[in-house]
Amino acid sequence: MADLSNGFFAAGPVVLPSGGPLYLQLKRWIEDAIQRGEVGPGDALPSERDLAHKVDVSRVTVRKAVTQLVKDGVLIQRHGSGTFVAPPAQRVEQLLSHLTSFTEDMARRGMAVRAEWLERGLYLPSPEETMILGLTSGEQAARIARLRLTGDTPLAIERASLSSRVLPHPEAIEDSLYEHLDKTGSRPVRAIQRIRAANLGERDAELLQVPVGSAGLNIERTSYLASGRAIEYTRSIYRGDTYDFVAELRMGDAGPNGGDAT
Ligand code: 16G
User: What residues line ligand 1, using a CB cutoff of 6 Å?
Assistant: First the structure.
C-alpha cells in the first residue's frame, strides 16, 4: 500500500479542473487521478491537513470532497488509520443459458449474499404487472424489492413482482425468492431476460455506492412455469463494474435472422 504523501500527491503544483464549487473540483481531481491509474486501490490519501496545504484549499473543502467520495464508494475511511482508495469490486459472471437465482450464482462462487429489504407487500397491480403476469381482477401484485450485497459490497437492486396467488405472503421469504417458490411448487423453469445499458440515477447510485452516472445494467426477467404461465416479473439494476453476463453461442440452423426472438 503506497503512502501518497510521498507519491502522486507530493508531485508538482496542483491544477484543479475548472468549474463548479471548489470541493467538487477537488473531488474530480482525485477521481481523475484514480481513473488514470496514478493512484490505485488500497493507496492511502494524505491527511486532511496535508492535502489542504498541498492543494491550497481549506480543510473544510477537503473534508467535503472526501465525504462525497466515500459516499460514492470511491474512497473508504478506516477509523484511526486514514482514508484509502477503495478496492475494485470483484466481478461476477452469470451464465445466460441457466435459469439460476442470485443466491445460487453467488453460492457457486463461494460468496455469501445478503439482502436489504427496500419494499415488500401486496399492492394494487400496475397495468404493466397486470399485463405481463396475466393477473385477473381481484389478484394483487406481490412486490419485493431488495438491495443485494455480498459482504458490504452492493451488487444489484432487484424489484420483483409476482401474483398474490403465487406469493400471498411476501414477508415469508427468507433469503431466496427461488428457494421459497421451490418450496411452494412454483419455481419457474424458463425465463426471458432483456439486458440494456443504463447510467445510474441518484437514488440507485447511492444504494449501489457508486458515483451518479456510473455504468449499470438494466435487466428485466419474466419467468414462466412449465404450464407457460408467467410467474415472475423482475426489474434489476446491476452495477456495471461487478457483473458479467456470459452467453454460450452455438452455430445453429436458424439462419442469419435468428430463431425464435420473443
Ligand atoms: C436473479 C434474477 C431475478 C430473481 C432472483 C432470485 C437476474 C438478472 N435476476 O437475481 O429475476 O428474482 O435471481 O434470486 O438474474 P434469489 O432466489 O436469490 O432471491
Answer: 94, 101-103, 158, 160, 176-179, 219, 221, 232, 234, 236
